[in-house]
Amino acid sequence: MIRIKNLELRIKNLHQPQRQSGFTLIELAIYLGILSILLLVLSSFFNSSLDTLMQSQATSPTEQDSKFILNRLMYDITNTDTLTTPVNPGDQGQILKLVHSGVTYTYTQTNNNMTITDNTGTEVLNSPQTTISNLSFKRIGYATGKPTIQIIFTITSVTTAKSGRDTQTFETTVSLR
Predict the structure, then answer these.
(1) What does pTM read for this prediction?
(2) pLDDT digits over 47-96, tens only?
(3) Cβ(120)–Cβ(106) below 8 Å
(4) What is the DSSP letter of 17?
(5) CA distances for 107 relative to 19, 42, 59, 87, 151, angstroms
């Protein structure tokens, strides 16, 4: 006679479903929904940041160049010895000639740039990120008084933002000391 020790007989319960590893279709749909919302928010934030960057890149050069050009013109005009062009009150043109310490400085618009020429050569006053247009120098005041110059110019950014190119027109008046 044969004896079997510790014989176990296991019977599957057919009424209890087996637990399988993985995700259910409902869990997967919820995860995809949450992921979609998160990606939508992140892409919206990224687009907003990109728009702000483009606007900043369009505005910054126009502001920097305009400040530099206006400061340079004001310094040179107030410290000049003689104003040679425009000659008479009421005269207007795209050329401004000044003599300071024996050196003639000529401001003009050339190829959408504002340039200054002196005895050492010609320099462009605006950066490559901007263009200059509608440059005008007008002598105002009385023939016997201190010469006063009205300066008008438009500066435009080369970079195009969502709202378009940044364009600003400046008008100022500067007198000799």
Answers:
(1) 0.68
(2) 888 877 776 665 678 889 999 999 999 999 999 998 999 999 999 999 99
(3) no
(4) P
(5) 85, 49, 24, 15, 11
E strand or H helix at 69: helix 25-78
User: Hey, which residues does 136 pair with through a beta bridge?
Assistant: 152
What's the CA gap between 144 and 82, in Å, rounded?
14
How far is CA 151 from each of CA 42, 138, 173, rounded to the nearest angstrom?
47, 7, 6
Provide the token pair at 166: 């940044």
- Of 102, 168, 99, the C-alpha closest to 132 is 168
Is the distance from CB of 159 to CB of 57 less than 8 angstroms?
yes
Taking phi over 0 as left and psi of -120 to 50 as alpha, with beta for the rest, 104 belongs to: beta
Task: Enumerate the domain spans of the chain.
Answer: 25-175
Give CA–CA dist 160/138, Å, rounded.
Answer: 31
Q: Beta strand pairing status for 130-140 and 148-161?
A: antiparallel
3-state secondary structure of 81: coil
User: What is the full DSSP assignment across 124-159?
Assistant: E-S-TTEEEEEEEEEEES-SSS--EEEEEEEEEEEE
